[in-house]
Write a structure and sequence with these properties.
The longest helix is centred in the middle third of the chain and has 14 residues. The mean pLDDT is 93. The chain has 16 helices and 16 strands. By secondary structure, it is α+β, with helices and mostly antiparallel strands. It has an eight-stranded antiparallel sheet, sandwiched between helices. Strands 3, 4, 5, 6, 7 and 8 form a six-stranded antiparallel sheet that branches.
């Protein structure tokens, strides 16, 4: 549908919704969700053509784009105008609408908050077939603040306006190493009050932590390239300083899916050069391999033969900064997955009903994505459940893009049950979409 206007695309979807009978789902070729779904018969809305960057406005500091635009395309359009989206999630294939309907983060989140805090306006196709404009200050402000973390259970974002910020040509990186976690988190807090443009870090071990500070610069004495033969996360352990072009910085994690490319052999020098090559070293390739493996059960069968009991632990959790030492101690002792990505978040508003966090407080996102292997057996979801309980005990919150094991009462206490019921009654009264618990925990 190349060249089709946004208005025509919207009319097509509304006609499909008007003729629907039964539940509705989204038809899309890619997904960055990491939870199994039990597919049910439903009308599949094809929104693949909502993939256009409509406007970049440097004067206003805004980008207007359709919901299925990938962040790679969105960022390229912004960079051409000397801007970037205020928060750019780590993977090129993440879509703008998906980042807002879910919860997305990156190393500028200590300045601007989570991705949904950078949104100025949403155009949403709701479950009752309406197309509504939601802003902080209009009659649909409840939808504006309720849409983040709704995962398509209230409606789909067709068009969004998001905040953009100026960039320079390069990013200078400073990698600071720590052997003590308490000092590491103290330094992270201090740097969040400083002049850095980006802050994140990696825990390689109990006594090996790296805090990375990124600052825009106009010139660079050299630039490193982590798009093919060299692997970015390894550089953190050996280089005190580095320079990247702004584009390469924004996608530094995509080439190796942070470090998860090791699970498909992409860090083996021979496979990297002759099987993957630069065109296949990206999150899209790894996601396809992962989904193929989930479908055919290759690693499940191999683990059974080898006598391993396994559990995928693919999670991001947000912990209040004062409790981070305690969470890290628990995680290293009980789960043991390494490395761990850490990223500070400063929440600016407390009105986001389905992902409540305390405004003004500094949180730290811990991201860990691997498999726990034990010789002894354990119940299904055992390690994920340990994490869920610890996160709640520490006053944190967990993202819902992966497997969850909450009871229904527990889930709704955490994720704004009363507000969600009111939103569902107003915007999807006939239940065209599944509810949030059904989708994110039960996998419907």
């Amino acid at each position: 549908m190349s060249g089709t206007t946004h208005a025509a695309k919207v009319q097509r979807l509304q006609a499909l919704m008007a003729a629907r009978q039964g539940p509705v789902g989204l038809a899309k070729g890619t997904s960055n969700l990491f939870r199994d779904r039990r597919e049910q018969a439903k009308l599949r809305l094809d929104v693949g053509d909502f993939d256009t960057v409509l406007r970049v406005d440097p004067a206003a500091g805004l980008i207007e784009a359709e919901g299925m635009v990938t962040y790679e395309r969105l960022t390229d359009a912004a960079l051409a105008c000397g801007l970037m989206p205020a928060v750019v999630p780590q993977l090129k294939s993440i879509t703008l609408g998906g980042a807002v309907a879910g919860v997305a983060i990156e190393a500028s989140a200590f300045l601007y908050g989570l991705v949904h805090e950078t949104v100025e306006e949403l155009e949403v196709l709701t479950g009752d077939g309406r197309v509504l404009i939601a802003r902080r200050d209009n009659e649909h402000r409840d939808l504006f603040y309720g849409f983040p973390n709704s995962y398509g259970t209230l409606g789909y974002a067709l068009r969004l306006k998001v905040k953009a910020v100026p960039v320079k040509a390069y990013v200078r990186l400073e990698h600071r190493r720590f052997s003590d976690a308490r000092r590491f988190f103290q330094a992270l807090e201090e740097e969040c009050r400083g002049d850095a443009d980006f802050i994140d870090g990696v825990v390689f071990g109990r006594e090996e932590l790296v805090l990375t500070l990124g600052r825009f610069v106009d010139q660079a004495p050299y630039t490193s390239d982590y798009r093919f033969e060299h692997i970015y996360y390894r550089s953190l352990r050996s280089r005190p300083e580095d320079y990247l072009t702004v584009r390469d910085y924004l996608w530094r994690w995509d080439t190796d899916w942070f470090w998860c490319s090791k699970n498909v052999g992409a860090q083996n020098p021979l496979l990297r050069r002759f099987v993957f090559g630069p065109s296949r070293l990206n999150s899209v390739t790894y996601t396809r391999i992962m989904r193929w493996n989930a479908r055919w059960g290759f690693t499940r069968a191999l683990n059974r033969v080898m006598g391993w009991h396994t559990e995928s632990v693919i999670q991001d959790v947000d912990i209040p900064l004062p409790r981070c030492d305690e969470f890290l101690d628990f995680f290293l002792a009980q789960i043991g997955i390494l490395p761990i990505w850490v990223c500070p978040i400063r929440v600016h508003a407390g009105d986001y009903a389905l992902y409540p966090m305390r405004p003004g407080e500094l949180y730290v996102n811990f991201g860990f994505w691997d498999v726990v292997r034990r010789r002894e057996s354990f119940p299904a979801g055992y390690h994920n459940r340990l994490i869920e309980r610890k996160v709640q005990a520490l006053g944190g919150i967990k993202s819902l893009y992966s497997e969850s094991y909450f009871t229904e009462d527990e889930f709704w206490r955490i994720y704004g049950g009363e507000a969600y019921r009111q939103l569902k009654a107003r915007y999807d009264p006939q239940g065209a979409f599944p509810d949030l618990y059904q989708k994110c925990v039960l996998g419907r």
